[in-house]
Amino acid sequence: MPETIPWIAIAVSVIANMIIGMIWFGPLFGKKWMELVGLTEEDVKNGSMAPMIVSFVGACLTAFIYSVLSYKMGADSLRGFIETSFWIWLGFMAISSFTNASFAGRTKSLWAIESFYWLISWLVMAIIFSFVVL
User: Where are the alpha helices (H) located in 73-107, listed in sequence order?
Assistant: First the structure.
């Protein structure tokens, strides 16, 4: 556990994650993602706020855990934070989500949209942490 928790980096990372999600699943890949998961714009507009709450809580936990893991992995430069982000994404997110997608019969396109969103989020978190922590 780091001696001091970088709360500012965590807060900024949560905000960045939510903004990236709005752009990624909005203008960039929103229509394709909705098509692949079988949702319509009407479904999204009339949907519950629960997924947004889950997303926010998940972003908070992700940023906090990232602060601990980056400390434990010895990230002490922008490169170190980026490497930490990449290995966390590859080892824990990309592989497990691809395995799940394979068993569920989900398309590679859907996997790519969802998985690369997380890669971008983790890399942005690396940049934020490197500026705040270093």
Answer: 78-88, 95-104
**Which helix or strand (DSSP H or E) is residue 21 part of?**
helix 7-23
Cα(86)–Cα(58) distance, integer angstroms: 18
Q: How many CB atoms lie within 10 A of CB 38?
A: 7
Q: Which two tokens stand for residue 126?
A: 């690396």
Provide the token pair at 49. 């706020």
Which pair of tokens denotes residue 78? 């922008």
**37, 113 in Cβ contact below 8 A?**
no
- Give the whole-angstrom CA distance, residue 85 versus residue 113: 18
Residue 84: count of CB within 10 angstroms of its CB: 22
* Residues belonging to the chain: 134
| pLDDT tens, residue by residue, 56-91 | 999 999 999 999 999 999 999 999 999 999 999 999
**pTM of the predicted model as reported, rounded to 2 decimal places:** 0.92
